[in-house]
Amino acid sequence: MTTREQERIELLQGTLDLLILRTLRVGPAHGHAIARAIEVTSDSVLQVEQGSLYPALHRLIKRGWIVADEGTSENNRRAKYYRLTAKGRRQLTVETGKWDKLAAAIARILRPAKQED
Amino acid sequence: MTRREKMLRELERDIREHIERETQDNIERGMPPDEARFAAIRKFGNTTRVAEDTREVWSMVWLEQLAQDVKFGIRMLRKTPGFTFVAVLTLALGIGANTVMFSVINGLLLKPLPFHQPDRIVALNETESSPGSYPLSGADYLDWQAQNTTFAATSLFDYGAGFNASGDGSTEPAGATSVQANFFDVLGISPILGRSFDPGSDAAGKNHVAVLSYGFWQRHFGGRRDAVGSTLQLNNESYSVIGVMPPRFDYPAGTDLWTPLDMSPKALTQRGTHQYPAIGRLKGGVTPKQAQADLSAIAAGITKQFPNTNDRVGAVVTPLKDVLVGDSSTSLWILLGAVALVLLVACANVANLLLARATARAREIAMRAALGAGRRRIMQQSLTESLLLSLTGAAIGSLGAMWIIQFARKEFAGRLPQAAAIQLDGWVLAFTAIVSILVGIIFGLAPAFYAARVNLNDELKISAGVVGASGSRHRLRNILVAGEIALSLALLLGAGLLLRSFSNLRNTQMGFDSTNVLTAVISLPEGSYKNLEQRRAFYDQLLQNVKALPGVESASVAISIPLRGGRNGTVSTDGPMAPGLESQLVEFNSITPEFFRSYAIPLKSGRTFTPADMDLTAAMNLRADALTPEQQQHPPADLQFIAVTNESMAKTFWPGQDPIGKVVHMGVMNVTIVGVVGDVKEWDDIRHKPLPELYFPSTLVLDNATPMYLTVKSRIPPAQLERAVRGEVSKLDSRLALFHVLTMDEIIAQSMRNTTVETTLLASFAALALLLAAIGIYGVMSYVVSQREHEFGIRMALGAPPSSVSSLVVKNGLRLALMGVAVGVLLAVALAKLMTSLVFGISVWDPATFLAAAVVLTSVALVACYIPARRAMHVDPMIALRHE
Predict the structure, then answer these.
(1) Is residue A41 part of a domain?
(2) Is A111 among the domain residues?
(3) Phi, psi for B726 (deg, rounded to 5)
(4) Which tens digits make up the pLDDT trace of B575-616?
(5) Which chain A residues in 85-114 lie under 8 Å from chain B, judged by CB atoms?
(6) Residue A72 lies in a domain
(7) In this predicted model, which residue has the larger pLDDT, B621 or B4?
(8) Please, what is the end-to-end C-alpha distance for chain A in angstroms?
């Protein structure tokens, strides 16, 4: 195991949904591209076992937050593109707000000393 | 294909694509192909698990859980066949009875009448100053028809008559209604074969055509299509058959065939003589109220024009459905309410059984909770079992209901045109489904809550043999039983009130003796019996021959008989009349001399008729018929008729005076009273008080071809006479049929039919509730005894006599019963008012009936306690103590 791998963080449950929604806000993408995007934008700190993406994608489709379109990729192959719905866009705002609150709360608990400094 | 199926089907391809892309990326990063692929797969994770997890996103967890619960529930119910049998049977009875009652209500009251736009069809009647509605006079109807602005069309018809129908040899009675030619158009029903009446066919002389009912077509013509166009002999006159109505069309109920009514003003009755029912179809957007106002205005105009005949004669417009449904709607709703109470009692019983079982299953439930089943899940499982029970009960109950509904349909067939609509159709099934689900939840909730509240720790710690019952559970069972008793008391009281009413009706003074009296209707064809003399000769000969039959005491012919009256009008007397008397309805009957003897109607004063009276009336009648219109306005003073009156009329018209010799005037007739007889119930409603009545010699009506009632009083049971009487009729004229051959006892039974049906049903519902309540109290007391066996053993070991132990149990049960009775009495007092229209000769708060119901119920409860009490008495102290 490399040091780099040790620094990776396991995702909190449900956070993956938020990350997918955030990724798709830029535009439609296929499954692999979403996984890559999460990995790259988090500087590979977040460890996503790529397979776990799929139950999450299906869950979001079932909730009506994203839809899957059939399309052709760069190299002319058929691929499924996932796209944010209006409902999903609203949900992203809600989830982001929740996340910010949670993060701030946790930060206050973990670093109270900083304020005393 | 659903979204779910599509997504899952493509999942495998999506995963493959994903791994290929990652492999490609890896290769681009410089990995050798094999390693690149391996890394991609490793990074993706376990593909099988990913597929499973994804599938679970879409899986319907609740459905799978339900299937699991149902499977488990069925297994549990099969493990306790005795419990399952009792519970399902109880529910099947309760739900089945509700299904039957609802199908009757749905068919008769809720569904629209089987006509086109039925809510626009109204019944037309006239009224006199007293409230109520009477048939129309033909002349008034013609004015209504000509002047109204609110009806699309109106149609007049008659009350129907029996015809002797013969097509090929045999003669059979046929009930025929004569109708205005537009009758079927007003109802909006077309024949399935042939045509209905042409517009002109109700003109005089053109009316020898007939439309058949489907039933008569099947019966008389074997359903042959060539029946249309063939000739049918009705009272020896030829009618050509022009059409056949659809199978379900039965209006007026019981009609075999329809012929056109002669609508010429001459043929219809004059003002003052009310004899026709009528219907009308409202124009679109017109309410019955507006139509009522329209006709009332016309009627007021007629009154102004003809004050003699039409004083205070108004119009009555009633939606046809209200007329047809009439009084039966109240009793049907009450019966549905009663049967719903029975179902509640059944629910309480099953809830009790389930609670007892839940106690026994406490360990199992605790075990499941310990293994991680959540409260919701346990409640869900418990409710699934309840619903399984109620749905199975509903299925079995519906099968039984299907069978009973046929009888209900037959009961109303020929009486109501919508009887055929009594069916186990989609609406009824939906009702049953909803009821059974509600019921399943009602009786399943208590055990479900109990199951969810089981205390793991306690239940698992207690040794398997002793299962403790918490106090609250015990209290709940007591409340259920007391509730059952309360509901049963309400039902029992309702049944008691109806039973008392039934016996009151039975014992009502009808004013006549029905023993060994046979009645029948004879209709003499106008073509063969052309005038008064010919008709009189026929009846005289028939009476003479019938009286010669062995066993016959007397015989008579009359236009009405008791309970089959309804011909009435108003009369005037000499001098000033007391207020209300000029509009007082007087019942008219025309009879041969032995009528009073046949019915044992007592002569109170004066005399009855002699053969000479028959001759005199015949002669006067012929003279009256021959009067010119001018003479009718000023009738000759010597048109003298005689009549016998009844006590009711003597008291009403001549209080404190001798009615003999008094004169009343009816149209051109001056009628002298020669005798007074006792009152009889004239109408087909035993609750109705006898009306003032005038009896005339039969020769007053024989100038018309009116059907007449034959009455034969015998010393032998009338059933034995029927063949001989039929024989005498066909000996005189082989083309005549006898209609409505009934004994007077049968006529009385028919008059009481509604009360009989109501009483029978309510009594059986009450009996069912009583049985269920008894089972309930028995169950609870048995349980109490088994719970306290140990305690009883100790008591007896310490010297308590067995009788004190048993009385302890009985007291316990009695307390429950009395609590239930107390609540039940309050409930019954509240509900009794609903019964007002159903009871007769008794108050709905009759204390004796209340007391009797309470005593019956308490006694049944005591008996139900007795068996467990005996068992308590025979507890062996040694065994009970060793049990620990």
Answers:
(1) yes
(2) no
(3) -55, -40
(4) 888 887 877 889 999 999 999 999 999 999 999 999 999 999
(5) none
(6) yes
(7) B621
(8) 37
